[in-house]
UniProtKB/TrEMBL annotation:
Its cofactor is heme. This is Cytochrome P450. Coiled coil: none annotated. GO terms for molecular function: heme binding; iron ion binding; monooxygenase activity; oxidoreductase activity, acting on paired donors, with incorporation or reduction of molecular oxygen. It comes from Kingdonia uniflora.
Length: 446
């Protein structure tokens, strides 16, 4: 991951970060912090980059909150003036004021990878809203629950194929294969592993291109992302065209997958052509690619490190397992019962999640802190908030919990590198991908 990739990601990645650009309006009141000068640009960018490499990006925020303001400070990243809103009030402000006091800004790479007719930022903001409406409509819980049994059986097959046959596995690459295959299957009924691997490669290039330097020359990350985007959109358009024909000729079920659901729901998609739909599906595949596999990897890491947490997750999942007949699949009701397991979620959004004022002893992995309803509003925001809250949350929740249900009942595991470092580039990941030793549990958990 290149230096500029990291910084670009920072600018648009999570909801804590919003960017307002001071388009020459020197009279407006600016928050405290470093002003823009060549020296400041170099120092701020380098510091953020190296703290990420060291696995402590939160220090960048904490230091500036201490030095400038615990509410909002300004800094400069990628040649842009950036205001960083902090704490629960900062989150509340961001989530409540989009399109009023704040506008989302996208890096110029986006317009080349996700081309639309107009290149104006306003047009992209409009597309962003459409994406959220589109994704929320496809990924609503009522639809997802009808595919839960498919998720469950695919996850079981994945464990049979890649985990049961090995004593040692590396979690991150396997989690990526699993979550992307689930997406391809549930969204598009694509099952062929080699084709899925090819699509995954292209999606990876797109994700890397969005957060790369805006340089479109042969072989540059942006150039490769543009080519990958063209490839994916062409494939998806052909698939959508064929699916429309198959639905019209009643050759396939209208509930076959999320694509069919989408195509028959004309009230939402009526005005969208095939290119639009292909582009939105591609965005969903990109948005849903990294986060669930990263979350699964960190869950595996913490469960290996904390046997008491593993024990509680196992107990919860065994209870659910006991209530089911042999071979009976999980239901949406079962997912709702997995309360403790859902609290075992991965920890980011530094100015609140790592802030002892909101969460005492924040470095300690303690899922019990999320029991009940006692945290400060706007402090815990793993899926963002406001109008741009993650539309994939229920889908991600289902796939992560179904995975946990299956994995803890089959295995215990230990880390092969107890001190494996975490690096943020900018998504956190164990540097070796979390290799683990599996120990099969002796019970009928399949
Ligand atoms: C653990 C898993 C996940 C986490 C933690 C997560 C988190 C987030 C966050 C924080 C945002 C808001 C970003 C912003 O404000 O700019 C977001 C947006 C989004 N997420 Fe997720 N996400 C996850 C899984 C997924 C999955 C599985 C999908 C799709 C299947 C998905 C689809 C999207 C889309 C389409 C957006 C853009 C919404 C918009 O721009 O309005 N996410 N996600």
């Amino acid at each position: 991951m290149e230096f500029y990739q990291l910084l670009l990601t920072l600018l648009f990645s999570i909801s804590l970060w919003f960017l307002f650009r001071n388009k020459g309006k020197t009279s407006c009141k600016l928050p405290p912090g470093k002003t823009r000068s060549t020296w400041t640009i170099i120092c701020e960018n380098l510091e953020f980059y190296f703290l990420g490499r060291m696995g402590i990006p939160e220090k960048f925020i904490e230091d500036r909150m201490r030095k400038h303001s615990s509410q909002v400070f300004k800094t400069t990243l990628l040649g842009e003036n950036v205001a960083v809103f902090c704490g629960a009030p900062g989150n509340k402000f961001l989530f409540s004021n989009e399109n009023k006091l704040l506008q989302v800004w996208w890096p110029s790479t986006s317009s080349q990878i996700f081309p639309i007719e107009s290149c104006l930022q306003e047009a992209y903001q409009e597309e962003g809203k459409k994406l959220n409406t589109f994704a929320s409509a496809i990924l609503k819980p009522e639809t997802i629950q009808t595919y839960l049994h498919v998720m469950d059986s695919m996850i079981k097959q994945h464990l049979d194929m890649y985990w049961d046959t090995n004593e040692k596995v590396t979690v991150l690459p396997l989690a990526k294969i699993l979550t992307f295959s689930l997406g391809c299957n549930l969204f598009l009924s694509i099952e062929e592993p080699l084709y899925i691997a090819k699509l995954a490669e292209k999606i990876k290039l797109i994700a890397a291109g969005i957060i790369s330097a805006p340089v479109n020359i042969l072989g540059s990350p942006l150039n490769r992302a543009i080519k990958a985007s063209k490839f994916i959109r062409k494939e998806l358009q052909a698939l959508i065209k064929q699916r429309k024909i198959d639905i019209a000729e009643k050759k396939v079920s209208t509930t076959q997958d999320l694509l069919s659901h989408m195509l028959i729901a004309t009230e939402v998609y009526g005005s969208m052509n095939e290119a639009d739909i292909a582009s939105k599906i591609m965005s969903i595949l990109v948005a849903g690619f990294d986060a669930p596999s990263t979350t699964i990897t960190f869950i595996m890491k913490y469960l290996a490190e904390l046997p008491d947490v593993y024990g509680k997750v196992l107990q919860e999942q065994m209870e659910i397992g006991k209530s089911k007949g042999s071979g009976e699949s999980l239901t949406w009701k079962d997912i709702q019962k997995m309360r403790y397991s859902w609290n075992v979620l991965f920890w980011n959004a530094f100015s609140t999640h790592k802030n002892p004022n909101y969460f005492p002893d924040p470095e300690k992995f303690n899922p019990s802190r999320f029991e009940g309803d006692r945290h400060v509003p706007y402090a815990f925001i793993p899926f963002g908030g406001g109008t741009r809250m993650c539309p994939g949350m229920q889908y991600a929740r289902a796939e992560i919990l179904v995975f946990m249900y299956n994995v803890v009942r089959r295995f215990k595991w230990t880390k092969l590198y107890p001190d494996e470092k975490i690096r943020f580039d900018p998504i956190p990941r164990p540097v070796r991908g979390l290799p683990i030793q599996l120990i099969a549990r002796k019970n009928d958990s399949k």
